[in-house]
Design brief:
Number of strands of chain A: 0
Order of helices and strands of chain A: HHHHHHHHHH
Oligomer: homodimer
Distance between the termini of chain A: 61 Å
Structural class of chain A: mainly alpha
Shape of chain A: globular
Largest interface: A-B, 55 and 55 residues
Radius of gyration of chain A: 18 Å
Chain lengths: 189, 189
DNA sequence: ATTATCTATAGATCTATAGATAATGC
DNA sequence: ATTATCTATAGATCTATAGATAATGC
């Protein structure tokens, strides 16, 4: 069947949308292509007309979700105080909704075990956000902060969010988030 | 065959030893029971005489590796300066050897997706290390640091290590570790 | 006529179980 | 006699491919 010219691209986009959410929610290794295709309203047979392999999908989904989050963070960086921005990351909603949340917190440790091409995609597209962080948030407070300093700041945020997510006691988990906010503020002083 | 009384326990220990390494190296979802048993010198059929399920193994392997690392960290906390301790965590060897390294950096984001019983085990056994960190490292520098503050400090260390592991360029990855050291020192000031 | 989608399947692997085998203590 | 181990297998799922089907543009 010859479909409309944009049909193929729209389908591909829908698959990427679902994949970038499910990978963050369940982990890359734990989510199968059949589930992704099914949630996109398709059967698994169609997958390979859109992507060469699961690893190719992983790279494109990472790219997509990192870029999407970059847009959001750029906006937050412009008009807000440090604390508002930090609390925009370290809050119970973000903790409880990994599917639309930070890619670093959800997938960095798993991406580290993937092929170099995948790590390269992750690193390159995360660098845009790190550079923006360094340029506005960090340098606003102290001088001479580079991409690596932004990575450490991001490490504090994502590492703390992960520990909060792994902590089953709600009150204790909330306290971890609050301690993370204090620590992040301290880093900026 | 009736084996020596300690035989069963030694075999179980060997399985746990292998599992706690492979889970950290490859991720929990990505490593199968057959591979674990094979590296322990056994076939998969024996697994269920030692553990009720894979999830039960996960809990015991987490418990074991968290406790093992706790011992090491306790010793480091006693006789070293802040910087030596921080560099004992954020260094290239630790980055390159996840199998024997920090459980939080390797598995926290994956544990967060596991059943509550597993998260409880993780949280309880990690709390011992967090309390030790709060008691010595943090309170040595600033007053009134609790378990949650230690969790944020640990979040900085583990989150930064994860980003270093995901960064394919060696020099850039090394720079992330160094920035992490600076940030951790800053947190203790 | 083209091509995205479907069903069906290959072949590998996953967790888990059943029943036979073999090594040691009583 | 006991029991940890083995082989074999069930049944589900994984990634990937093959070939039939069907929806739309020329």
């Amino acid at each position: 069947m010859r479909y409309a010219p944009e049909h193929n691209e729209k389908t591909r986009d829908r698959i990427l949308e679902v994949a970038s959410r499910l990978f963050r929610e369940d982990g890359i290794a734990a989510v199968g292509l059949a589930k992704i295709m099914s949630e996109a309203g398709l059967t698994i047979g169609t997958f390979y007309t859109h992507f060469k392999s699961k690893e190719a999908l992983v790279r494109e989904a990472l790219l997509r979700s990192l870029d999407a989050r970059h847009e959001g963070i750029e906006q937050l960086l412009q008009n807000n105080t440090d604390e508002v921005l930090i609390r925009g990351y370290l809050n119970p909603e973000h903790r409880d909704e990994p599917g639309t949340g930070c890619v670093v917190a959800a997938l960095a440790s798993e991406v580290a075990r993937h092929p170099r091409a995948t790590r390269q995609t992750f690193s390159t597209h995360n660098a845009r956000t790190l550079d923006a962080l360094a340029a506005s948030l960090l340098s606003r407070n102290r001088k001479k902060a580079g991409r690596a300093d932004a990575a450490a700041f991001m490490g504090l945020l994502s590492g703390t969010l992960q520990i909060a997510r792994a902590t089953p006691d709600r009150a204790e988990s909330d306290a971890v988030l609050e301690a993370g906010v204090r620590a992040a503020m301290r880093l900026l002083k």
